[in-house]
Amino acid sequence: MINMKRKGLLIVISGPSGAGKGTICKELIKRNSDICISVSATTRAPRKGEIDGESYFFMEKQDFKDDILKGNFLEYAEVYGNFYGTPKEKVFERLESGQDVILEIDIQGALKVKEVYPKGVFIFILPPSMEELKNRIIGRGSETPESLMTRFESAFEELNFVSRYNYAVVNDDVDIATSRIENIIEAENCRVDRVGNELIKKFGRR
Amino acid sequence: MINMKRKGLLIVISGPSGAGKGTICKELIKRNSDICISVSATTRAPRKGEIDGESYFFMEKQDFKDDILKGNFLEYAEVYGNFYGTPKEKVFERLESGQDVILEIDIQGALKVKEVYPKGVFIFILPPSMEELKNRIIGRGSETPESLMTRFESAFEELNFVSRYNYAVVNDDVDIATSRIENIIEAENCRVDRVGNELIKKFGRR
């Protein structure tokens, strides 16, 4: 058997709010103990039940700003006065050790990650229909009618960004969508532009 | 559920002699009744047990030459005075109707197909090791020592062409290799550059 020792894959799971990114990522990790998920850092206060280092790395605003200046984030954003970001070093360490890392992230974040790490596998999660997306956003029940319309409009706009991704997966069923992502990961591990050099070393040298 | 009505995929299974292309293709078709395999045309005489239209389309040399001039082959080659080729129309009809088509073909043929149909999925089948490739070629028992060395040398040379393919699949186990190819097909069906336009039509138009 060929030793295809390689870097891990950075698998970016992204898409509009309500598409079901979070549920799919949970299922993916449940099924694949060898894949790990990147935990984001944030300056917002922990909500009830959230665990530091699991839900998020909770940080003081000043520390976060210092880390920005040090270039410690793969991407970051300020949303309603709070910062959110992806700690770079943890992700890169794992990739170097050959582990696949999942990044569950919004579209703006994914596009920033693509700029600095285009070798990532960029997967856009789609709702089965706009109607269903609306139902899911409403179903969360945590929105006012105004913020709901804003969310819905912005989800609609965001769908146009699908063209910047490598793959689109329709989340009509969490199990099926998760299996599709597993297939994508398997296929990416057979791509010649990822494993070609290893193969040529193994076979092609005279 | 989004209707992802699309063209079929042209899946080109290629690699050096002895890598196990044929066995993998048989398994792939056994498992997936919706995938069909392209039957080659040839001017060589049928061998015992070969069925016209299944093993090959057996043709007269003059008819084959006429078809070449008419541009009826996706690729063709002359080997030891016999012609072999892939009938173009049958393949394209099936792709248009949305059916996936497998082409089991040698490396020279695959590279020609890539020129005229770069949208194909080009998969290179690798033996688990050069030692194993040697054993498999010997195991066929139909070779003289000289032709065996020639075959082996040429297989070795051919491995360098892996870089022209999209995917490399190591055939250490037929079941696993076949599953890898199934994963690749599934993943290709999620590629934005294949389904993007359908998605944008469905969701993105205001």
UniProtKB/TrEMBL annotation, chains A, B:
Predominant subcellular localization, coarse grouping: cytoplasm
Entry's EC annotation: 2.7.4.8
GO cellular component: cytosol
Residue span, Guanylate kinase-like domain: 8-186
Reaction catalysed by this enzyme: GMP + ATP = GDP + ADP
Keyword Repeat: no
Keyword annotations: ATP-binding, Cytoplasm, Kinase, Nucleotide-binding, Transferase
Source organism (scientific name): Oceanirhabdus seepicola
InterPro entries membership: GK/Ca_channel_bsu, Guanylate_kin-like_dom, Guanylate_kinase, Guanylate_kinase_CS, P-loop_NTPase
Binding site for ATP: G15, P16, S17, G18, A19, G20, K21, G22
Any single Pfam family the record assigns to this protein: Guanylate_kin
One Gene Ontology molecular-function label: GMP kinase activity
This protein's name: Guanylate kinase
Subcellular location(s) of the protein: Cytoplasm
NCBIfam families, A to Z: guanyl_kin
PROSITE patterns reported in the protein's UniProt record: GUANYLATE_KINASE_1, GUANYLATE_KINASE_2
Role noted for this protein: Essential for recycling GMP and indirectly, cGMP.
Family of this protein: Belongs to the guanylate kinase family.
